[in-house]
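Contributing new records

If you add data, match the layout below exactly. Sequence lines come first and carry their own label; structure lines follow with theirs. Keep one chain per record. Anything else will be rejected by the validation script.
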Amino acid sequence: MIICEIRLPRIVTALVAGAALGLSGAIFQGLLLNPLADPYTLGVSSGAALGAALVITAPLVVPSAIFHGSPWALTAGAFVMSLATLAAVVALARDRQGHLAPTSLILAGVILSAIMSAAISFVKYLAGDQVVSIVFWLLGSFQARTWSDALVVTLFFLPALAAALWAAVDLNIMTLGVRSAETMGVNTRRVRFILLLAASLAAAAAVSVAGIIGFVGLIVPHVMRLLAGPDHRSLLPLSALGGAVLLLGADTLVRTVLPGEIPVGVLTALLAGPAFLAIFRRRMGRLLDE
């Protein structure tokens, strides 16, 4: 009973959430031509965090049974707000011809993330005793995850993976530049929209059930690129696999080895941060040698 209802749902949720974050990071880095892009570049995590904070503090403003005892309320609030943030980013980045330039998307994401972070700080100020719940969620955790949480992430991860594999060849061509890709017959607007939507939905679903878990979508694609090369036909599924292994390993470590159960988002930042700095220094050394 304990294994089927407590341990196994937590394991499956960690695996699928890690895979979603790793896949999203690989898609964003290839799509935006930016090695620092990850699922949070477009404000997905900030929007989810604000949505969760609003749900946690809602009973203080509108006393209602809707916000009490519902396992779906927090997930739904985070997910809906993350999608609203994504829609705002796309609307801000779109030019008069309807194109979405990678630079414009990144800038719009940074701007919206800053606004959302300020809003989260304001909600935390008003939260009173509920601020502890908000801070714990922002740090990321898989405690008390259920089969419903695993199902939410899976329902968005599998279509995102299918779309990514379908567009992997076009994504390889788009890394050469938009003009070159269009010359070779790639519908860059359609491919960018499909991949952007798929990666954002997968990341939003993962964040909505697990909270803010940083560096997974940033570091995993870099490691897999070093191991398997830049071909997205292999890089995308390997990034999903690497994200799943990393997040499951981190969650197992905080649950069984470390004293107490610290939020898994803290551990991923502590482990992946130095690793990313090492990769960054290695690449900078190559550039200087050239």
